[in-house]
Specification:
single chain; 359 residues; alpha/beta; 7-stranded mixed β-sheet; 5-stranded mixed β-sheet; 37% helix
Length: 359
């Protein structure tokens, strides 16, 4: 429950620990504090995904755990705060100032990434390993922490940086084929009061707190997914690559002994293991004990396949597909040609073998 009480100088919110992931914030009054509270500063008014996430990240560190959040653009107010993000026109890690709006700013994450950082990216660059290690219950020096730190930047934080800095995802002057308003930054934007609603400071701060919670929950979901779900699957993809020539002499088909999130592992491992020729199809058992044959895309996130399933099979099911393919036990092939199914492993293998020879 948010307790809303105004102060004379600024709207200040204290983080109080709860049993959930995110602290509950409330405005502090002018009653003297028994102990000095650490304060995080960011700008007031319209809020964005990057500073909402940045505030959440700071509150997951030892140094700023439980910190008040002060929203202001007044230099004298910001000067008194322990850390300031997304306002102030200064990037100075030693002074705990993390703004990215100044003309000369060109900081990137490093490690091969070239997207200019937002305030979220800046905070993550300097504090991310500590946050990831704490969330996963590991030492910061653990190699797993470094891997998840980089993976979360690539798969989660970089998009926040790119959107906040107005960087397009593609190098083209052509308009997109469709729009996407379901990304995290767009959903944060929808937490603002509408033009014909109450737009008081109180309402804005309620929306900001929702943004902190929204971005924080999704960040933690990302860390836990990559640390506890995605990474353990890597072993099964390594094993499948090592055994690929036993599935088909070409080495272009892999069979997973256990279904797992395999696609991004595959692209990374092909490069690391110098896999040639590259993999065209992946076979795995589904939750109904049938077998799937799935194509491999040209890159992570792409809908373009290295080699689709044969055109003649697409959009056909069951007995009709058996007859067209000459393979018993067929269940379906998707109309887009990226996935199919068979009742048996042998049937799925036969689909892969024929698909390597057909168009």
């Amino acid at each position: 429950m948010l307790s809303l009480r105004y102060t004379a100088l600024s709207l200040r919110y204290s983080a109080k620990a709860t049993c959930g992931r995110l602290p509950v914030y409330c405005m502090s009054n002018l009653t003297p504090q028994k102990r000095k509270m650490v304060k995080i500063g960011t700008h007031d008014g319209t809020f964005h995904c990057d500073e909402a996430l940045g505030c959440f990240l700071l509150q997951r560190t030892k140094e700023f755990k439980g910190a008040d959040i002060v929203r202001s653009r007044v230099p004298a107010v910001l000067a008194e705060l322990d850390v300031v993000i997304d306002v102030g026109a200064v990037y100075d890690p030693d002074a705990k100032r993390f703004d990215h709006h100044q003309k000369e700013f060109a900081e990137v994450f490093g490690h091969g990434f070239v997207t200019k950082l937002s305030s979220a990216g800046l905070v993550y660059k300097h504090f991310g390993k500590e946050i990831v290690a704490t969330e996963l219950g590991l030492e910061e020096s653990d190699p797993i922490v470094d891997k998840i730190y980089l993976k979360v930047y690539k798969s989660f934080i970089e998009a926040v940086d790119g959107i906040d800095n107005g960087i397009s995802m593609w190098d083209s002057d052509q308009p997109p084929k469709y729009t996407n308003s379901t990304d995290l930054s767009s959903r944060v934007g929808k937490l603002h009061p509408a033009w014909n609603e109450d737009d008081s400071a109180e309402v804005y701060y309620k929306g900001f707190l929702k943004a902190v919670e929204l971005t924080g929950d999704e960040f933690l979901d990302s860390v836990n997914y990559f640390g506890k779900v995605w990474l353990p699957g890597r072993k099964y993809v390594v094993d499948a690559l090592n055994a690929r020539h036993s599935v088909h002499p070409s080495g272009e088909v892999i069979q997973l002994s256990q279904y797992c999130p395999w696609k991004e592992h595959l692209h990374e491992l092909e490069e690391e293991m110098n896999v040639e020729p590259n993999i065209k199809y992946c076979l795995y058992e589904d939750d109904k004990k049938n077998w799937r044959i799935q194509t491999v895309s040209v890159g992570p996130g792409s809908f373009v396949n290295r080699r689709g399933l044969p055109t003649a099979w697409r959009g056909i099911r069951d007995a009709e597909l058996d007859a067209v393919s000459g393979i018993p036990g067929c269940i379906f092939v998707h109309a887009a040609g990226f996935i199919g199914g068979n009742k048996t492993l042998e049937g799925a293998k036969q689909m892969a073998y024929k698909a390597l020879e057909m168009e």
